[in-house]
Write a structure and sequence with these properties.
Rossmann fold; six-stranded mixed sheet; 11 helices; 39% helix; globular
Length: 235
């Protein structure tokens, strides 16, 4: 579904990402983990078109993504749930979800999508008329996920969904994501600081360090790797 080859990107002459290659197959849950500053968020911004790469290729379902305007990439079926949630604080929950449904598929599937979003994330149904800025961090994160789902994505990209949340709320959000994926067969690409939970949930994982892929493999392989265990799992 998503193929990234030899990607080089950054914000100045010195790249943040250097020769990064990643593959995400349809229906997979792929996790990208690594220390702060490794380039994980830059990778997502490059896929979304916020950052323009200086080398490499990104292909989505056979389409050269770099030839598609950033504003059109969501219409191909890519939803980016950004770091820090970035909900619209002065809009209600329902209005935020409607903002996510601006894609062609989102408008077409709105009725079905909103029913499923409310079933998966009931707090959004309970608070549909509440202003997003008055919600807790965990509720805002659920809203950001719901807004992404409202676009009818084929690929859901989640950037640090547990950031700033209590362990209990982060665990709940991971449980919801696993259930959403189980019921919808949605392809998920996750960047996450909670390495143990990310690798446990994922089919395949990549360890990004200093802008390069240092390790990759299925969840069992990475969780058993001594380097991963020492650096990220506290073992």
């Amino acid at each position: 579904m998503l193929s990234i080859k030899g990607l080089r990107a950054g914000y100045s002459a010195i790249p943040v990402l250097n020769d990064v290659s990643i593959t995400v197959n349809a229906g997979q849950f792929v996790a990208i983990v690594g220390p702060n500053g490794a380039g994980k968020t830059t990778l997502f911004k490059t896929i979304s078109g916020i950052v323009k790469p200086s080398a490499g290729s990104i292909t989505f379902e056979g389409t050269d993504l770099l030839s598609v305007a950033p504003s059109r990439r969501a219409h191909l079926g890519i939803a980016h749930v950004p770091e820090g949630r970035q909900v619209f604080p002065s809009l209600t929950v329902m209005e935020n979800l409607e903002m996510g449904a601006v894609t062609d598929a989102g408008r077409r599937d709105w009725k079905q999508n909103i029913e499923r979003i409310f079933a998966w994330l009931p707090v959004l149904a309970e608070r549909r008329e509440q202003f997003a800025g008055t919600m807790s961090g965990g509720q805002q994160q659920m809203l950001a996920i719901g807004r992404g789902l409202a676009s009818s994505p084929k690929l859901l990209m989640l950037d640090e969904p547990s950031m700033g949340l209590s362990p209990a709320i982060a665990d709940f959000i991971f449980e919801r994501l696993i259930e959403i994926r189980r019921q919808s067969n949605l392809t998920v690409l996750l960047v996450e600081q909670r390495v143990a939970e990310a690798l446990e949930s994922a089919d395949h994982g990549y360890v990004l360090e200093a802008g390069r892929v240092a390790l990759e493999g299925n969840n069992q392989t990475l969780r058993a790797d001594d380097r991963v265990r020492r650096a990220y799992l506290g073992m």
